[in-house]
Design goal:
Elements lengths: L17 H18 L13 E6 L5 H12 L3 E6 L11 H10 L4 E6 L4 H6 L5 E7 L5 H15 L6 E5 L6 H12 L3 E5 L15 E3 L2 H5 L4 E4 L4 H4 L7 H8 L14 E3 L12 H4 L6 H21 L2
Parallel strand pairs: 1-2, 1-3, 3-4, 5-6, 5-8, 6-7, 8-9
Helix pairs in contact: 1-5, 1-11, 2-11, 5-6, 5-11
Length: 308
């Protein structure tokens, strides 16, 4: 059954049906072909203005969106919180309403406050795309992750996917979880008990606190970045101890299936959550995730622009 995209916003994966996720992935497949051509531009967003409003710092996501917008021939404006009127006391809503008054069509926003995107989407007519909000969600990262998995396996139905690390503070884990569950995968969260709460079992996620248990049946392993800024809060004794018990290296990788994929949303803390031998090894698809991210973000921009 074919469906059409009707939403002006992409706020969180939880809001999407499995069919809508598949539509984004199918559209991304076509845009990936564009990315592999000698001439990588199409006029799909010609005449549209996209504002990249990154109030929280970002490198990978911001650059990926900018390149996606350029390849769709959009007009682009880049803004950050440090150079906006937010520093002068203006509210977020007033700032985005002023952006809309300048005839912007889509705002791509990263914000440290969970739910900030939902707030502004209710009050403006232009499209809003969530490029990460606090520890709540990161929908385009989840979409590029499931796109990469589907590309390798053909389908996610019945696959065992283990996400390992700081689940508690991870927007990637939450968005990945909903995308994977909606597409029929089995999801395991693993990490220290302080960073991997059992409350996720209520939505059908398996939770474990032993690395081997998370690896042995996994078709895909996604390692999350250990956030050094959290270390002062005492969630685990030291990065060395974390690496010993939950780092994926030559020793622990022996529990992986030979065809299991190794993923990471980046940036990698090498030899903490993931050793260089594994990150650069044959099972790693980390750089493919980066490449696929551009095609997925092209698809999201194209579909949301079409619904305006």
């Amino acid at each position: 059954m074919s469906i059409s995209w009707t939403q002006k916003d992409l706020l969180e994966i939880y809001d999407l049906t499995a069919a809508e996720i598949e539509l984004i992935l199918d559209t991304a497949e076509e845009f990936k072909k564009v990315c592999l051509r000698n001439v990588k531009k199409v006029p799909a967003l010609r005449g549209k203005t996209v504002v990249n409003f990154f109030i929280e710092p970002s490198t990978r996501t911001r650059v990926s969106f900018e390149l996606a917008e350029q390849r769709l021939s959009a007009d682009i404006i880049n803004m950050s919180g440090s150079v906006s009127s937010l520093t002068k006391g203006e509210t977020l809503l007033d700032t985005v309403k002023n952006i809309e008054a300048l005839q912007a069509d889509i705002i791509v926003m990263r914000h440290s406050a969970p739910g900030a995107h939902m707030l502004i989407a209710k009050h403006i007519k232009c499209g809003v795309i969530n490029a990460g909000d606090g520890s709540h969600g990161h929908p385009t990262q989840a979409l590029l992750d499931v796109f990469t998995i589907r590309e390798k396996f053909g389908s996610l139905k019945g696959l065992n996917v283990s996400i390992i690390g700081d689940i508690l503070h991870s927007r990637v884990a939450r968005s990945d979880m909903w995308a994977l569950l909606k597409l029929g995968a089995n999801v395991t969260f693993a990490g220290p008990a302080t960073l991997c709460p059992r409350e996720f079992e209520e939505v059908g996620v398996r939770v474990c606190h032993n690395l081997k248990d998370a690896l042995v049946d996994a078709d895909v392993v996604n390692l999350l970045r250990i956030q050094h800024e959290r270390q002062a809060d005492g969630f685990f004794p030291s990065t060395g101890e974390y690496s010993q018990f939950f780092g994926l290296n030559r020793d622990s990788a022996q529990f992986l299936k030979p065809d299991a994929l190794v993923m990471h949303p980046g940036p990698i803390n090498r030899d903490i959550e993931l050793s260089s031998a594994i990150a650069d090894g044959p099972q790693s698809v980390i750089l493919e995730q980066v490449s696929n991210g551009m095609a997925v973000r092209m698809a999201v921009l194209f579909l949301t622009a079409g619904a305006l």
